Amino acid sequence: MSWRVHPASEARGKMILALIIIGGVSYYLLITAGLFWAIFSILILFVSLGSFFIPTEYRIDEQGIRVKRFIYSYYRPLSEFRRIYILKNGVLFSPFSRPTFLNNFRGLFLLFPKDREGIVEYLKKRFNDLIEDKS
């Protein structure tokens, strides 16, 4: 199962707001601190919001999960995960068998596209014994 998520194209209003904020900050820095700091702020803000502006591809196969972004990709084997949480905006693969505050730090969160039903159905069929639906 594979899917692609591009939050900026799915939420045009948020994208416009983010661009206005980035433009406003860079314009303020251009006036007060100079051209270097304005360009530097644009780079830092785009890098920090990279997962919003740049599409991400997810692939789940028999062995593991591959996350592919613009510059890099990484792979995590399914044997690492002991619990799966289906949430409103995505799915969290957790290495812990019980809920813990470390889930967000050690786990792997995959965003859902707007049409999430097919993915949720696949996950429930494939990982039925590990799933906890919190959506």
When the domains are counted, the total is 2
Binned strand content: 25-35%
Q: What is the rounded distance between the termini?
A: 20 Å
Number of helices, counting only DSSP H or I runs of 4 residues or more: 6
Largest sheet: 4 strands, antiparallel
Measured as a percent range, the helix fraction is 40-55%
**Strands ordered across the widest β-sheet:** 1-2-3-4
Mean of the pLDDT scores? 90
Please report the total strand number as a whole number.
8
Uncertain regions spanning at least 5 consecutive residues: none
Overall geometry: elongated
Element-level helix/strand string: EHHHHEEEEEHEHE
Structural class: alpha+beta
Please compute the radius of gyration using only Cα atoms: 18 Å
Account of the protein in words:
The structure is a single chain. The protein is α+β, with helices and mostly antiparallel strands. The protein has two domains: 2-52; 61-133, no CATH class. The chain has helices spanning 7-10, 12-32, 35-48, 50-53, 103-106, 117-126, and strands at residues 2-5, 56-60, 64-68, 73-77, 83-86, 90-94, 108-111, 131-133. The strands form two sheets. The chain has a four-stranded antiparallel sheet with strand order 1-2-3-4, with no helix packed on it. A four-stranded mixed sheet has the order 7-6-5-8. A hairpin with a 4-residue loop joins strand 3 and strand 4. Helix 2 packs antiparallel against helix 3. The longest helix has 21 residues, at 12-32. The radius of gyration is 18 Å and the shape is elongated. The model has no long low-confidence stretch (mean pLDDT 90).
